[in-house]
Design goal:
five-stranded parallel beta sheet, Polyamine Oxidase, Chain A, domain 2, 23 strands, 3 domains, alpha+beta, single chain, disordered N terminus, about 20% strand
Length: about 525
């Protein structure tokens, strides 16, 4: 793993961000000898891969089984009962400022990232009445973690005295990929219990991370939790504040990127899921879909977990038997529910645009879309109402979504009492179960970018990688890495990438953590 320290703030505030150099080569393929590549999956990972491949002159076909691009950030048109045209989606996503490679992708069509707008805070509220905020927390480590503890009402002096400092030392020196060797066999809940964090602090400060993976803390690998702590607290000075698109995902992101890809010659085949991949008689692959069969010299498989399993099951010659068996064993996280409500009146003027919640039954967060999204804001101004979105993560399998959505509304009334008198003019509910499960002990059983066949690579947030990235940033990073592997074989220049540092920033804290860990191991 090669890391080079990046000494300017061009890609973000953090001067310690590191660059991952790509292999050098020709800037563009010879037009007479253009290699062909099929990218399967039109989410962040697939679009990232298709982008750099097309920019280097590769003949790219992008397959997406859904009618629209975007993957789990896709959007589609709908009509409300009042006749309003709206864009529905699968819910809110935060574009954190550590997402260097995702932002690099978006800069292709929005160089100044003007379609992203920053939210002023990331408040967290517990049903006990405790509330945390990140607005005043310093962004530079280790002041970020110390400042959060000092400002958080969930940490008292007695609580700090009862904590197991030695068990907490690993948080001071996260090293990737060593973090997986040490903590992948432990659940996030057991790890936090061993440290002795106050229960309210666990809910407010850490459960938000585990819920980002749509998983219960008892099922989530502690390695993923520790990595997230590193990415947002002690490994980066970008902080925990984030940006959101100023219009729905298709208008702000995917439509411009689709036009960009088509301008580079990419064939975008939406509504055409890949059914089978077979070896071509004279090398390469035959990719079969509802649009017919197409030859490709190389493949980037950038689907979700279920899609990858289906392709592996239907393609008996893809890669090798152990790889296909590993893919077939992958699991998805529990279902999640998104309920979007169009209310006849606004929520309180001081309510935040986003609120993380804990202790309110199934309710994990509340978003007020008209605070930042243009389409929702225009509807709210026209009607005098508000557009509110409620999320429930890790919904029990078999739960009735109607019952869960009813409970979400009841909890909204608890959190913001002024909504009790609001009339729901319209509502939409999306229950999905297609996020990867980062289960305890599962790290080594996840696919990597590289496969036994050098002409096949894998990308997405489910992919195991040696870099400190997660969620949407893991999708973008592995998408570029999957494309880079093919570009390197073809003698073409790859995409340079950035990440937060792969280890703790403070030499003193690293030394303290290693001394404590060595003593514990001894």
């Amino acid at each position: 793993m090669r890391f080079t320290r990046y000494g300017t703030a061009e890609r973000g505030r953090d001067r310690n961000a590191v660059v991952i150099p790509a292999a050098d080569g020709s800037h563009r393929a010879d037009a007479r000898l253009r290699p062909t590549c099929s990218v399967v999956g039109g989410g962040i990972a697939g679009i990232a891969a298709a982008t750099i491949l097309a920019e280097r002159g590769v003949d790219v076909t992008l397959h997406e089984r859904e009618p629209t691009l975007g993957g789990r950030l896709a959007g589609w048109q709908d009509r409300l009962s009042d006749g309003s045209e709206v864009t529905m989606s699968r819910g809110f996503h935060a574009f954190f400022r550590q997402y260097y490679n995702l932002r690099g992708l978006l800069r292709r069509v929005d160089p100044g990232l003007e379609r992203l707008t920053g939210l002023p805070d990331y408040p967290l509220r517990h049903s006990s009445g405790l509330c945390d905020s990140f607005a005043r927390v310093p962004r530079t480590p280790p002041l970020s973690a110390l400042g959060f503890v000092a400002l958080s009402p969930s940490f008292g002096w007695r609580d700090l005295g009862r904590m197991n400092a030695r068990a907490a030392l690993p948080l001071l020196d996260v090293r990737v990929p060593d973090v997986y060797r040490r903590y992948d066999g432990v659940s996030a809940r057991d790890f936090l219990d061993a440290i002795g964090f106050p229960p309210a602090a666990q809910h407010l400060a850490f459960e938000v991370f585990s819920r980002s993976f749509f998983a219960d803390p008892g099922e989530l690998s502690a390695a993923e939790l520790v990595l997230m702590f590193h990415i947002y607290f002690l490994g980066s000075s970008e902080g925990l504040l984030f940006d959101v698109p100023d219009e729905p995902y298709p208008q702000a992101l995917w439509d411009p990127l689709a036009s960009y890809l088509q301008g580079h010659g990419v064939r975008i085949l939406t509504g055409t899921g890949v059914e089978e991949i077979a070896p071509a008689p004279h090398g390469g692959h035959i990719v079969s879909s509802s649009a017919g069969a197409r030859h490709a010299d190389a493949l980037v498989l950038a689907t979700d977990t279920q899609g990858l399993r289906m392709i592996a099951e239907a393609s008996p010659a893809l890669c090798d038997p152990p790889w296909r068996a590993m893919v077939r064993a992958l699991r998805t996280a529990p279902p999640f529910l998104v309920s979007r409500l169009w209310l006849d009146r606004p929520v309180g003027a001081r309510r935040p645009g986003f609120l993380g919640t804990s202790g309110y039954g199934p309710l994990d967060n509340i978003s007020v879309l008209d605070r930042w999204e243009g389409e929702a804001s225009r509807w709210a101004r026209r009607t005098g109402g508000s557009v509110v979105e409620l999320h429930a993560y890790a919904v029990p399998s078999g739960a009735d979504p109607r019952v869960v959505s009813h409970e979400l509304v009841a909890q909204l009334h608890r959190v913001w009492p002024e909504t009790r008198g609001a009339v729901i003019l319209d509502q939409r509910h999306e229950l999905r179960s297609d996020c990867p499960l980062f289960e305890v002990g599962g790290h080594l059983n996840r696919p990597t970018v590289h496969t036994p066949d050098p002409t096949v690579t894998v990308a997405g947030d489910l992919v195991r990688t040696e870099y400190p990235v997660a969620l949407m940033e893991r999708a973008a990073t592995t998408g570029f890495l999957a494309a880079n592997a093919h570009l390197r074989r073809w003698g073409l220049r790859g995409q340079t990438l950035w990440t937060v540092p792969a280890a703790g920033r403070s030499a003193a804290l690293r030394l303290l953590a290693r001394a404590g860990t060595s003593a514990a191991d001894g």
